[in-house]
Every structure is written in structure tokens, then in C-alpha cells.
Amino acid sequence: MLHQKSYFAGHEQEVLKILIECRSHASSTVSATANDVLITAMDLLDPQSMVTALISLCREWSEDDSNKVSLSNARQYRPLPLTSGLYFLGKILGHVSSLNFSPSLLVDLSIKCLNESQPEIRKAAIDSLVGLHSSMGQDIWDLLDDKLTDMQRKLLVIYIQRKL
Fold it and tell me: Which domain holds residue 14?
């Protein structure tokens, strides 16, 4: 990937889908390798294309209830694809200064995920909103107005303050 990033251009969504699904693999070797490649991809691939692809994938995963059932057991944590997608979305947005997409798409997705029963999905939704705050600054509150409960708003403020 390091020396062949041009081959990935235009295929970000397929690459990210495979890597994120591998991150949920039962084999710790496969999962850790996929995680490492995702981190490398964040540095090499076009951030705007990755954001667009991750929003699309997360919307797809959020519609599929089978992607909301915990894969973890007592011995090993295995992140859900939706959780990984939201997490990496927040990471990428934390390093992007301008947005080339409608932030309301991410806000709507994150609000939906904040109301999921799985705590890891809710936490990842907070991570994505913290990343969006890094890109948008205080303008994010205009998009979030009346969409968050008081507790969700307080939690988001705490995580944003931790990030600063």
C-alpha cells in the first residue's frame, strides 16, 4: 500500500469495507493487521474520499441489524463493523480542515447510532461527532440543535473537552 496508493484511488469504499470487516475477524492476527493497514490508509489515501466511503458504509451497516450484534466474547474483543467505521471516521475528520460533504449526513447517522442499544456503537458515534467538531468547530452545534438529549449533549461536551 505504501508504494502503490494510486491503485486504491476510486476503490476506497471497497478497500475500507474489507479492512473493517477483517478488523472484526476472530483471528487476532488478521484483526490486528487490518487495524494497522487502516491506520496506514488514513495517512495515504485521500481523506475526503475516505470520509465519503465511510459514511456510506456506516449508513449501510446501521440499516442491517446483524451488524449490531456484539461479536465479542469474554476472552476477546471484536469490534462491530459499524463501530470501526464510526471510529475511523472520527479519526479522519480530526485531521481534515475542510469538509467536502454535507455534515448533516454524518450528524443524522451519529444521532441514530447514539440511540442504539450497543454501548460500543454509541461510543463510536460520539467519537465521530468529536471528529466532526475538530473539522467544523462550534458550527457543529447548529447542526445538533434539538437533536441530542441533555445527557448526550453533556457526554459529547466532555469528550470534546478531552480532545482539546
Answer: 5-163
